[in-house]
Amino acid sequence: MADTAFDVIVIGGGPGGYVCAIRCAQLGLKTLCVEKAELGGVCLNWGCIPTKALIRSAELIDEIKHAEQFGLKVEKVSFDLSKVVARSRDIAGKLNRGIGSLFKKYKVQHLAGQVSFTGANTLDVATSEGLKRLSAKNIVIATGARPKNLPDLKPDGKVVIGSREAMVLTTVPKHLLVVGAGAIGIEFAYFYSVLGAKVTVVEFQDTILPVNDREVSALLSKSLQKRGIAIHTSSKLDKIEISAGGVKAKIVGAKDNKEAAAIEADICLSAVGMTGNVEELNLPKANVKVDRGFITIDKSCRTSTKGIYAIGDVAGPPLLAHKAMYEGHNVAELIAGKHANELDRDQIPGCTYCHPQLASVGLTEEQCKEKKLDYAVGKFPFIANGMALAAGEEEGLVKLIFGKKHGELLGAHILSGRAADLITELALALKQECTYEEILATMHAHPTLSEAVMEAAAQAFGQAIHI
């Protein structure tokens, strides 16, 4: 690479980074993306996409097990874990190569290496061919995040593992202990439970998926427990013993340390949170501020140093790929002097991909109460939806929250086998400040699962037809 000076250098080629780099190039900016590992980042290679490939295999196993309710006879359900994993890795590889092709198409330069700032607009990149010294008018940090580790439960890659190792296990654990009931923990708990593992989940907070609406999280918890997954909330591990044969520990109360159960598992998945990838960047040289492991930014993703931006997971929660992409696109527009939207954190949808899925956007009922809002709640169960019955997806509900005075949508929460595909309608409604009347005035095709959204909106104000 002969060039050393750029309009924009994007550090990190994950969802936020590659989107930002491509959009910058589309806007006529001379752009370089530096990535020390695979293009696509953790999300594409070791997170969002390959995990969904694994989960889809689990869903099919689940569906085949219940084939009889559709009038089908299947003698025996079996699977080859190596092929399940291989399919997941193959999909990640295809998408990784696709980003490389997009870089060529849009003339984004790409360099593999580790970045270290030397000033506010200069940096060194350690590559396989030696050190390269570069400069840019604008620098975008998109280095992502990595899992946190508990002091007494540090991953060794064999007995105590992280999400990356959980994706490529060669055998199904007899007993999987999952520490942390956020999206990562719950998704792997579901996956390995379907494959036949005994699964125990331990969560410090008093509910699984603590950032979600408590009522809907509780319904998902009941569903997972019906599958045989043991869930211990308001709990933590004590007296942990790790050996080549597995993990032994006591499950105790999070606050009172009262022993609830003893546990022995051959594999323990640690999924207790994330921290930003900031240590190797030499950020003090650029006077970029970091707070509790994440880079500090304003609403437009500007850091404490002019001309330096941070997007995605490295800039703090929520740690979601679509949020990173949104920020990446906006920052590119901002750098190019175009109009850029500020991120409204109350309008970021979140999805958990087990079965049923949980998807949400906007305020939870708990947040409405904390804000002392006057609100109305509408609920519609999928068991009353024709398409859900036909598809065998009758579990779950749509829960919508509206302001009482004006009827504006405040929050939406869906528990359904297809919740992630349904939430975008409500994200758009929230963005456009739609009222329940506007949702009702929007014709929803019949028969579809989306009719439950319309019915929930109607039910909030006593107008539901089918319940």
Q: Which key features would you list for this structure?
A:
single chain; 467 residues; alpha/beta; seven-stranded mixed beta sheet; five-stranded parallel beta sheet; 13 helices; 31% helix
Explain briefly what this protein structure is.
With 467 residues, the chain is α/β, with parallel strands linked by helices. The chain has helices at residues 15-26, 41-46, 48-65, 81-106, 163-166, 183-194, 214-226, 321-335, 365-370, 386-391, 419-431, 436-440, 451-460; strands spanning 5-11, 31-35, 109-112, 114-117, 122-127, 130-141, 145-147, 160-161, 175-179, 198-202, 230-232, 235-243, 246-253, 259-265, 267-270, 274-276, 290-291, 294-295, 308-310, 350-352, 357-362, 375-381, 397-403, 409-416.
Gap between N and C termini: 65 Å
Task: Determine Rg (CA atoms, Å).
Answer: 24 Å
Average pLDDT, all residues? 96
Shape: globular
- The tally of strands reads 24
Would you write up a description of this structure?
The chain is globular, with a radius of gyration of 24 Å. Helix content is 31%, strand content 27%. It is built from 13 helices and 24 strands. With 467 residues, the chain is α/β, with parallel strands linked by helices. The protein starts with a strand and ends in a 7-residue tail after the last helix. Strand 20 (350-352) and strand 21 (357-362) form a beta hairpin. Strands 1, 2, 3, 4, 5, 6 and 19 form a seven-stranded mixed sheet that branches.
